[in-house]
Amino acid sequence: METKVNVLDSNNLDENILKEVANVIRNKGLVAFPTETVYGLGANALEPEAVKKIFLAKGRPQDNPLIIHIYDLDQISSLARNIPEISRKFMDKFWPGPMTIILEKTDLVPEVTSAGLSTIGIRMPKSIIARAIIKESGVPIAAPSANISGRPSPTDMERCVEDLKGKVDYIVGGEISEVGLESTIIDCTVTPPCILRPGGITLDMLKEVDKDIYIDQSIMKKPEKDFKPKAPGMKYRHYAPKAPVKIVNGELRKTIVRINEMVEAYRNDGKKVGIMATEETKDQYENALIISVGTRKNMDSIGRNLFETLRTFDDNEVDVILSEAFEEKGFGIAIMNRLKKSAGFNVIDV
Ligand code: AMP
Ligand code: MG
Q1: What region holds the YrdC-like domain (predicted)?
Q2: Which of 119, 155, 192, 284 would be a feasible disulfide site paired with 212, CB 3.0-4.6 Å?
Q3: Residue 265: enclosing H or E segment and its boundaries?
Q4: 118 alpha carbon to ligand 2 midpoint, in Å?
């Protein structure tokens, strides 16, 4: 398949490109496009034939439902029913933005979009380009991350091209994803509401709307064998670079000592090591490919660079990636959730 690639400028949207992209969506095609979380791979959410193509292009398991993206609150009434008051409060406060709400679905939403569930996830993105594409298309857009299933999600156009060129109709470039991690998912079909995936809208921010909201505890732990997840995506290995990831967790001073010891051991075995360090620590390692993922003074920078850094280690064909850990509070909860998953929960405590 021929994949068209074009870049949009959010300060000056090219109407011709927008029209072309919207036509692809309306004609049941696939479009990768920027959002503030990660790049998405979109199709008309109401056309089973179009949605099926997303699963095929990504190699995504069919029981992993998609998030439906809207640009206007009026679109919700045709997609969801029995919409609880509390979900309206979350929407008022955090939409447009990196938050997905799970609601009961209407019959208009095809089974393939919800992966057979009676519920759907809905999000109104903040990205100007994403909103313009949804608006111009005139339909809600189902869009998971625009990567091959299992790999770290793309946060820029080049990574979409790497994974999807030849598999989709159109790739739209634009800004680098500002948050860098997928949306916070809140199940509003239960009381109190429950966070199924941590993201850019943190637990503390959500508690200002509902003090009883909590994080489903299973998401930070290695899934048990017979684990039946509330969000189907929770059971799959995710965000994984080609090389195995090992997280070293503990006091930073001890972490540095242990990582340096591990580097020596790997090097003696003839292995090429990647270290995911931070601005504060990067000068304290040696004999490895050392990449700073961001500064500990600004956790947003770490979220924004996390997936791109994992992919850069792949580009350099390291045999193993050793990563520092981050405190599980605020946005750090989302960062550690992705990092632990990418490591298959391989955490070494020091
Ligand atoms: P992705 O867009 O690839 O990050 O994946 C979307 C995530 O949203 C998946 O992990 C799904 O499990 C989750 N999700 C979407 N719809 C639902 C739903 N109805 N109930 C629970 N989780 C959902
Ligand atoms: Mg994904």
Answers
A1: 15-201
A2: 192
A3: helix 252-268
A4: 21
